[in-house]
Structures are given as structure tokens and as C-alpha cells.
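Data availability (excerpt). All sequences and predicted C-alpha cell strings are deposited with the supplementary files. A representative entry, Lipopolysaccharide-modifying protein, is shown inline so that the format can be inspected without opening the archive.
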Amino acid sequence: MVMKAKRTANFRLVILNGKAYMEKYKKSFHSRDINTLWGIVQVLRRYPGKLPDLDLMFDCLDWPAVKAIDYQGPNATSPPPLFCYSGNNSTLDIVFPDWSFWGWPEINIKPWNILLEELKEGNKRTKWKDRYPYAYWKGNPTVAPTRRDLMKCNVSDKQDWNARLYAQDWKTETRKGFQHSNLANQCTYRYKIYIEGQAWSVSEKYILACDSVTLLIKPIYYDFFTRSLVPMQHYWPVKETDKCRSIKFAVDWGNNHKQKVQDIGKAASKFILEDLRMDYVYDYMFHLLNEYAKLLRYKPIIPPKAVELCLETMACAADGVGRKFMMDSMVKTASDTGPCTMPPLFDPLNLQAFHREREASIKEVEMWEKKFWENQPK
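C-alpha cell line:
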């Protein structure tokens, strides 16, 4: 069953007697595979001897690969268990925390435990009421049609949709030493836009952490924590099909209802700063791997081409910023306590009610927006 997932996997991971072994199939983009494996080694250091034996496949792309429709019908086989960074309602991949929690050296994004503190300080520098009263986005617009469409909402001499949008040229930024891409310095607008790229985007947690109101353009994908977010509590929902008018309405409404939208921004950053601390990320990883291991029906063995993942050899193989980020994100000592206790699962009725409430909130905002534009002069 596990080997069925090899088709798209970047690596196979086996944990046996508390030690990790990895067989690489293909290189990932940048250091995604290395940083993900580094994070798993940190879980083993944090909770030594507590993870059971397991055997898994991991795909390091932005998008999920296991389509639910391929495993339906009377003659359907069971889907392969494949770990990935994101999922959607049409896929069955097992969603795992992304590599950037341990840093992204290629574009100088620091490990989450370091960056989280910098984002806290960045929030304090400019109070919400003193921030630019517009919606801000900075990123690579070339990776997806929806982002290219967003750029049409930028301010021009003919129209102002309340958006200030900037294309990030990573080649130039890298050459100049990342002078204009410090995330902690980007909490200067009242509103920040989140939009997916080719699929889910790693930028979401950085945007939500800023105290600014996140204008969330309707996503297709989710990562391991975003399904906990509630519209009008943690973010403002924006329509994907009519972005410019939807963004303008959100900003105009927010600037006329300042306390309400400040509360939304504060709730989002509180969620990120408190509930997405590395302590809880590691606990999530521990529980996910532990529950996955319970489903195995065989004793894992070390693949013939696998290498043991050792803290020292992984760090020594890295250099420059990559090695620094490893040192900055390393778990220094084992935890004095066990992982947190997982809350009980949603029962089907409560889960359905949760989804209905979310949809009702989004529809309410869409109704406000519709009435607003209907009442505008033709």
C-alpha cells in the first residue's frame, strides 16, 4: 500500500526504534525535502523514543496528488497514503506542516520560532490606525492566472480599487541581499491580501500574523491549520471571480467600521502567535505520525538505499544560511512533558454545522457587497 504512493513522492521515510531513515527518489524544489526531514528529526529529539515505527511517502509539491475520484466505485482500490503540504475537497493526501517552519534559506525566510518574534515586534512599530488604509500584496504574479488577474486591481491613473500590489522579483532581491523582503517590515497596511499561487501558498501564516485584516481571496486548497479559520472572525472573505470590486468594498467597509475589522486582524494574529507556536506544530506532527503508524499492518524495515538521518550529519552537509537556520531551529533538549492532548473529533453533525456557519458568514458578506454596488451611481 505505501509503495503505491512512490509515483509522485520525493522521499520515503522510515522510523525504526526511534531512528529515522530516508530513501530519496527525486530532488525537491529548493530545500523543501531537507527542511521537512530536519523538522521530523526535531520531533524525534523533542520526544525521544515516543514515536512508534512507521513507513511513509512524502511529496514536496505545493499541490496534492491523490485524487478522490480515482478511488471511488465498486471496483475501486484503496488510495495510497501520501504525505503532502496541502489538500482540497477533491483529494486524499495527508496534510503535514510545510518546510518553511524550519526556514527557507533560498529566499532568506527565517525559521518560524525566530520569525514569529520578529513579527510580534513588527506589529508594534505601527498601530493599525496609523497604517496605510489600503490592501497590500507582494509576491510572484507569474505563477498562476489568478495572481495575474489580481494585478489588474492595482491603483492606476484611471481607477483606485484600494489595492497596492507589488510584483516580487526574487532574482533581483537575491542579488541585492533581500533588502526589500523582510516579512516583519511589511505590517504597515491595514489590510493584507492572501491569494493562492499554483496551489496553496506558504505565505498565509505570515500574512495572518500581521494584525492587519487578511483579505482572503476564496481558496481552493488548505494546509494543516487553515481549516480552523472562521470568516469575519479571522479574515475577510473576498470573491475570486470579482476581485477588484470585492477588495474595494472590503477596504471601504473596514475604514468605516474600524473597530470591527481591527478585532478581526487581532483575532487572526492571536491565533497565529499563540496557537501556531512551534510547540504546537511539533505536537501536531507527533500526533499525526503516531495515528498514522497505528494503521500500518506490517513491521517497517530499512530500505536498502536509505540513509540514517542524523542531526550532526544533516547540519554538517548544509552550509551558509541553510546551516544557520538549522542551528536556529534545532530542538536543544527533550521536552519535560509529553505532547498536548488532542481534543475529541468533531462528530458529523457538529462538523456540518461548523461548515454551514462558515458558508453563511461568507454569503452574508457577499450580500453586503452586492447591495453596495447596486446602490452605486451608474
